[in-house]
Design brief:
By secondary structure, the chain is mostly helical. Helix content is 65%, strand content 0%. The protein has four helices and no strands. Helix 1 runs antiparallel to helix 2 and helix 2 packs antiparallel against helix 3. The longest helix is centred in the middle third of the chain and has 18 residues. The chain starts with a helix and ends with a helix.
């Protein structure tokens, strides 16, 4: 498999795996280095892989209402249904 397709699949799996974690910190701590290592092993450029997973880590905060630290405050106040 070409590294580009492997990298795209890894980014998608990394992003949607966030549903299994209670916080963004737990998700990044458990998965970032493992996915980065696999991406580099498939031939992806290291700098691109590191920035790609960092970018997707930031997008994970918008997937669930409990991902970021201020999110429970917004949810409890009724701003997020």
């Amino acid at each position: 498999m070409p590294w580009l397709w492997a990298f795209i699949i890894l980014l998608i799996v990394y992003t949607y795996a966030h549903y299994g974690f209670a916080s963004l910190t737990a998700h990044i701590t458990a998965m970032y280095s493992a996915f980065l290592t696999v991406a580099i092993a498939t031939g992806a450029p290291a700098y691109l892989a590191a920035l790609g997973f960092a970018f997707m880590s930031n997008l994970c905060m918008s997937i669930t209402h409990y991902a970021a630290s201020p999110a429970p405050i917004y949810y409890g106040a009724g701003y997020v249904p």
